[in-house]
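Exam prep: given the inputs below (a chain plus pyridoxal-5'-phosphate), describe the expected output before reading on.
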Amino acid sequence: MNPPSRGFHTHAPGFWPEATDAEWNDWRWQLRHRITSLEQAEQHLRLTPDEREGLLLTRHKLAFAITPHYFNLIEPDNPDCPIRRQVIPRAGEAVITSGEMADPCGEDSHMPVPGLVHRYPDRVLFLVTDRCASYCRYCTRSRVVSGVGEQELETDFEAVYEYLAAHTEVRDVLLSGGDALLLSDDKLRKILSRLRALPHIEFLRIGSRVPIFLPQRITPELCNMLKEFHPLWMSVHVNHPRELTTEVRDALGRLADAGIPLGNQSVLLAGVNDNPDTMRALIHRLLCCRVRPYYLYQCDLIHGSAHLRTSVAKGLEIIESLRGHTTGYAVPQYVIDAPGGGGKVPVSPGYVVYHDKEKVVLRNYEGRIFEYPEKPGDTSAVVRPEAILEY
Ligand SMILES: *Cc1c(COP(=O)(O)O)cnc(C)c1O
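Solution:
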């Protein structure tokens, strides 16, 4: 059976009418033909002064690159296009506002060896490359990604394997970067094999935006290779329903057919997905692509991101509009990566309105109130969200 086609469109060949099908479907061709300059962007888009300035100012912080596949999703005459806001720099990117940081999640201070972040007790983040297929303007790792920033990612692969061999409490390794799927099949296979050689590593996962920016990379050969390493899961990154084209749907389908459970991590972004209707359309379309919405991130306090950030109240309002109103599988967990290195903290609308030794008082999705009696004699500490902690 074919998946439902409603709402899925192709945008190829778009601005590349001369490309042959073989070229277009070749991921290396896509990478070679990325849009990487103001001049190239301007050939196709009516840029605003804000965008022109952004393109001139920001090259020192994070490279500018967009694959032809993704560039075709941009509406050339609409400065508010939600695709455009994610990948075309704006002048605000060069403005550092209060509270913003180069390393908002405090990763550098949790790196026991270069390229490995060990923040949580049983799992690690392994940064295997500093390159991406296209560059998101709100990148939380812009300090090391793309090779144009002040800092370089200098992953010491042998030191990482040595550290992991010694740390038998680590059971979960998350490959990220940059984007791990930009590595060749061979390079990736070598990394995964080294990890699989460690008996305490149970669970592997890859965080990647390649299925969205460069669906051509998800070849049958890659899928066959990845499935040698099960259990292997993947988190992709989609922020707007229009990113789910027919090509992306098919690439995600190939990964799912290879037995790779797929999750999505969205970032809440002003003018991209900061309203209930867009978010609902996104998560419904993700389910049709066999992707389970996993996290919705409050945008990190990265340098120059103020124009893309929303309030936390907005995020809570969106989650509240979804929970109970639609398929539970479709509702992501809203999280804030605690500034300075506290890790991901779930934030949820308050459904527990009161809780003491006798009862818990609940509010359902319609706002109706229900009581559930607490089990007598239990010594667990009671959580009272209405209690304001002094700090
Ligand atoms: C997000 C993250 C993980 C994985 O967290 P999960 O909640 O298990 O998905 C691991 N390490 C670091 C440093 C992270 O930022």
